[in-house]
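Hi support team,

I'm opening this ticket because the web form for multi-chain structure prediction keeps timing out on my end. I have pasted the exact lines I submitted so you can reproduce it. The total is 683 residues across two entries, so I didn't expect it to be a heavy job. Is there a limit I'm missing, or should I split the entries? Thanks in advance, R.K.
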Amino acid sequence: MSPEQFVDNLISGVAQGSVYALVGLGFTIIYTVTRIINFAQGEFVMLGGVFSFLLFSSVGLPLPLALLLAVLAATVVGAVLYLLAIRPARQASVISLIIITIGASTFIRGVVGQIWGKDYMPPLPHFSGDNQWLWIIGITLVVMVALHLFFSRTMMGKALKACSINRQAASLVGIDARSMAFTSFALAAALGAIGGAVITPLTAPHFRMGLTLGLKGFVAAAVGDFRSQVGTVVGGVILGIAEAMVVVLDWGPFASAYKDVIAMLVLLLVLFFRSSRGAAQEAAS
Amino acid sequence: MKHWLSLLLVAVLVAAVVPVVGCSESETIKIGALFDVTGPNSPLGTPEKQVVEMMETQINHAGGINGVPIEVIVYDTEGKEDSCVSLATRLIEQDGVVAIIGPSSTGESLAVIDTVDKAQIPMVSCAADERITIPVGDSIWVFKTPQTTYMAVQEIYSYIQDQGITKIAIMTDTKGFGAGGKKDLEDEASNYGLTIVSNQSYDNEETTNWDPFISKIENSGAEAVVCWGTNPGPALIAKALDGTGIPFFGSHGIANTKFIEVAGDAAEGVIFPVGKMLVADQLPDSDPQKAVLLQLKSDYEALYGEGTCNTFAGHAYDALKMVQMAVEEVAPDKETLTEELKDRKAFAAKIRTEIENIEGFAGTGGVFNMSPDDHCGLSKGCMVVVKIVNGEWVWLQD
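Hello R.K., no limit was hit. The queue was backed up. Here is the completed structure from your submission:
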């Protein structure tokens, strides 16, 4: 393996990991605000990818506009999901709400499969030349900076942050927790859809694509303990690099066929580490 | 009063049921079919179901088999092995079929062998894996129509060898079709003077980053890539390989327009082995399969639309045709047929023997020569090598 090839593969891994990070951030934001783990997160990724393809190839919009509208459409779906499925059941336990998201995920997938078919769609063209990976990394960086500014500079962002730190205290100072939950769902959907849209030139979008990408995003979020945005991004990128390197190194027990075991391995390690640390804390107290 | 009502109800029910039972006894030849119509293999199961429905109408329009109409009972297995087994039991015990065609996939076929073997009902599978019929001793009741994977491997390997290539990289799907291909690709390579310098497997649905795989192939010094899988993996690999200058060879798993659609420009020049269905109109008139392929194609596409007929429809066509031929052989006239239908078990056993005796039957998958040792009946030469040129399949004659 030449140094250039190594760098190329590293870049592809970082880019793939950026997508996991975007999806993972969706999990993190919804969790911190509402304590719900949204299992429909992967479907937003799928909607981002499938809508991008449909708007570009079937409707014939220019690529940037198609991508933008696809993300907007998925954001609307996220908002509607909250209004129709989560909000009416807000008195229910968190577990019930999580189960509702699982149902919503199956529903969204089914509807897309019924309307636009279950077969694979052709990949979109690369955004420019042959450097889609750089585009993905660039767009992810822009999104993260925007996200940071949103949380630190805008009133709504600060209110969201307040809700995630202490919901009750936030309510006491006049922040409407319900509208914050609404915002978190829309924001998570947008992030997932951006992930789906930027990866579409490198894969064949189809109605089931959210299952895998959602799972990888879940692992990224788990690394960040579903609380830390920085942790989620780091988790996603590490996962992306690990998957690429496993294929490149093709080292004994981690032959290329087991690439997708990596995500599970990371998840197991995180849970193991977390639970033992938790136990240690309990013992100490 | 209540008493009378219930008696009346029973009487009505009995009256309704009796004639149905009475006429279903022997008036039709019942053939069961198990296809994955809505599950993961629905691109296979759907044309299989459609072709047997079409043939059922055709046969019955022509007066059935020797004057007795056939009834094909199709059940959707949804690709689940357990439901496939219970549906097979239902076909045998409740519907009283004399033969079963299908299932669509290898896994389901292997799962259901035990059931048909115990019930002693002949089954003609539409799945490719050699384990279904080898060894025949496992169940003398099981046959299959698709070409076996190693035939496709031999066909493409012999083409690659002719190009003067000696070092190849193989990329195989970790699931069913690819896993079977991997084994045959590894076993056959040395027979064609080929060395596998890179041997990688991929997960079809989960992989989006193909670059590391391509780097490995480039570094291995491979002169060609042979990829065994179904959509979308091979198309994305062909795309990722585009620009490296390493030619891409596929399997019959990419014999569909979807591959060309997903791979786009990278599909140009891709070469793969496939049954003759795809290039039926390019075959010489002397080819015994040409007539049957063109006939099926025109009948099927008149019903279901231009360009819909594919090899999977062909596999089910061959299967039902074999059962039909066997029934005709067992009972050459209506009297014997009515007589045979009275003892279903014996009839089924005779059908099995006749399927095993089929010789020189030019079907869509090849010319079948069944024997007690060979329940597939096909040999090398039933597949051809095609190349994608301008989005069309072109037969590469040797």
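A quick check on our side: The mean pLDDT of chain B is 90. Let us know if the file doesn't open in your viewer.
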